[in-house]
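Spend some time on this chain, tokens included, and walk me through the fold:

. . .
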Amino acid sequence: KNWRLTQAKEAAQAEIEQYHLQKEKELKAKEAAKETQEKMTILQTYFPHNRGEVWDNLLAFVCDIQPEIHENYRING
């Protein structure tokens, strides 16, 4: 009889531990989703503000052409 009680107690303890792990996993998933949502909100807030500056920098970089010979180029002759 004691053996059955011990076995039942161990089984219950294992089930409880599994339940705790499952709930902890769910909590971490919810926290990660919340953090992701917060980051997206921040990015969406700053996007309109920085869009013009990014375009200006990109166009300046693309349009600023300075032709030069690559350092690895060898002239045959």
About this structure: Residues 2-63 form the longest helix (62 residues). The chain is about 80% helix and 0% strand. The CA atoms of residues 58 and 64 lie 10 Å apart.
